[in-house]
Amino acid sequence: MAFDIDMIKRVYDALPGKIAAARQTVGRPLTLAEKILFAHLHSDQPLQNFERAKTYVDFTPDRVAMQDATAQMALLQFMQAGRPTVAVPSTVHCDHLIQAKVGAKEDLDTALDKNKEVYDFLASVSNKYGIGFWKPGAGIIHQVVLENYAFPGGMMIGTDSHTPNAGGLGMIAIGVGGADACDVMAGLAWELKWPKLIGIKLTGKLSGWTAPKDVILRVAGITTVKGGTGAIVEYFGEGADSLSATGKATICNMGAEIGATCSLFAYDEKMADYLRATERADIAELANGIKDHLRPDDDVYANPEKYYDQVIEINLDELEPHVNGPFTPDLAWPISKFAQAVKEHEWPEKLEVALIGSCTNSSYEDITRSASIARQATEKHLQTMAEFTITPGSEQVRYTIERDGLLETFDEIGGVVLANACGPCIGQWARHMDDPTRKNSIITSFNRNFAKRNDGNSSTHAFVASPEIVTAFAIAGDLTFNPLTDKLKNTKGEEVMLDEPTGYELPPRGFAVDDAGYQAPAANGKDIEVIVSPDSDRLQLLEVFPAWEGTDLKGLLLLIKAKGKCTTDHISMAGPWLNYRGHLDNISNNLLIGAVNYFNEKTDSVKNQLTGEYGHVPATQRAYKAAGIGSVVVGDENYGEGSSREHAAMEPRHLGVRAILVKSFARIHETNLKKQGMLGLTFDNKDDYDKVQEDDRIDILGLTEFAPGKQLTVVLHHKDGSTDSFPVNHTYNEQQIEWFKAGAALNIIRQKFNK
């Protein structure tokens, strides 16, 4: 039986009535996203026809999911809220802190020893507050959620940007910062700007080498990394219904790479099959009873342009396998054009490492199709020419594929099975490399390929493709190889071609697992003690951020003017810094060390205006904080793109940065800044970015009259005595302005519970 079945029954019992009321209020048919959103309005939120991309709306999510890196800070914040237990079903998944180095067993044993303090903290705090705990080795959060918790028509928030993976089972699942998770676990409403809607109509059916991954790779090429910002992407059509549930999840997972709030598919028989296969037939039966409410209304299918802000159509019959990259997930190349692109751009043709798995592509279907290619290498006497790694998404998947002989198939071609964890996908990879500065190419079935993302090396050209294509490239060892058309020479000197991949959507003999890795919380955690050593360098109890002083901000210094792409990886790197995700002061030593300084084209090198010397970004900001002087960070387009990590907002707040002024924000990061009491501002005229000089003193005026929709004014005092003044915009509503005034959203939560 499913987890939290009583909660799911309550959701389904209320769904038809709530959807009917919403349809009457709006006066038209509804998309699936609208149905789920309206069905999860907070009880204090009046029902109305909300304006897309403008109206802030309060919701009541059904559950919260957290991974171990972000859960530390989320739960440290929750401990300050004053509640005895979480208000909604919540889980913690230990998947981020396991470094890939040797192989599954050795790497897991090392992680258990190295991270014992953090795991013990997460286990004990989960036990105390009624949170389900998935132990290290149990699997990657999104795969485990898909197998155990996701359900059609539900709403979930998760402290990881790839939470939308659960959209593969028809769930609105949205990546958030830990402060948002804290709110929901504390029983408060969760706020979201009513999203725009992008409809993607899929016709035809996948065949041959083309996989579900190629759908989202193509979509990323169409929309770019910003195209989905502020929108829910809804897939529909007969092509959508033809995809497996895990294939749908792959597409939804990587929707984060186009900035989408989330992505989802309508409930269908493929989802029902997956629910039954994962021992949740009871949910499938309930969903079948209200199936029409878990799909868009008929007229939405018939006239999609009337209901979506943008409609994209993709014919799966004509879709080619794609390879995206390097350095950005939206640089999309059909396989027929990829070899030419590699040569024209002089990207390293030799492939050094091929990696499959991760939260994006580690389903049974993915593994069986990849194994069918690997098996051919053995049968056709081909040698694997690149390093090859396999990352199972969960212990259930790993156990099942081992039982079915698939791990042995990979082993025969030299594949190395890594732990059931994020590993190289998030930079947790101790890569074996002779010269990290050497230009080189890798290819993965992961989701992101920003510079330094996988191995910390800016010289690594990372490409993204389906597991099948990645496996074929591993065998070829050459990025100019096209497995659809090209031959390979085997050890006998013969020229052979790889056949099209084959596989199973679900295991013919069913899933199996010995120990899934789940630990249920105590029935009553009142007397359970959560211990955080004051001497720890990995965990630190939080101090309260100070309230706004009630005045305009004057005399601020420029910390850095970031040039070009500045993702959350640039603001707060992962990799070894994951060790400090529970210690705000220590992890703040990575603040903006990956951002490029506009004035000298260097990373981690900014001018200290107090000394005139150049130094590290965190050290410079600490000097400003010690002197009692606030600062400003200036950024480019889509600032904060990428991961949901709230550390990218908490670190500048902790070190005394007062405002982030950019051309545009990524959605999650902007919300995270607001939650932490920071000012997130955008240039009204983007050309004003060019006016910011290295030695500026900066004033932010209008805060004493801070109001929704009302511009603030920035004044730049240049070193030569001249000034520039210009308006800046913000998206703060009345509640968010109260967060700013109080110093953080958490400060208001604590005040409410301590009354």
Automatic annotation (TrEMBL):
GO biological process terms, semicolon-separated: tricarboxylic acid cycle
Enzyme category, top tier: lyase
Which SUPFAM superfamilies does the record associate with it?
Answer: Aconitase iron-sulfur domain, LeuD/IlvD-like
Write down the Gene3D superfamilies for this protein, in alphabetical order: Aconitase, Domain 2, Aconitase, domain 3, Aconitase, domain 4
Instruction: Cite the Aconitase/3-isopropylmalate dehydratase large subunit alpha/beta/alpha domain residue spans from the record.
Output: 34-477
Keywords attached to this Swiss-Prot or TrEMBL record, sorted alphabetically, are:
Iron, Iron-sulfur, Lyase, Metal-binding, Transit peptide, Tricarboxylic acid cycle
Residues annotated as domain Aconitase A/isopropylmalate dehydratase small subunit swivel: 559-685
Any single GO molecular-function term of the entry would be:
4 iron, 4 sulfur cluster binding
GO cellular component, as recorded:
cytosol
Question: Which cofactors are reported in the record for this sequence?
Answer: [4Fe-4S] cluster
Q: What is its EC number?
A: 4.2.1.3
Q: What is this protein called?
A: Aconitate hydratase A
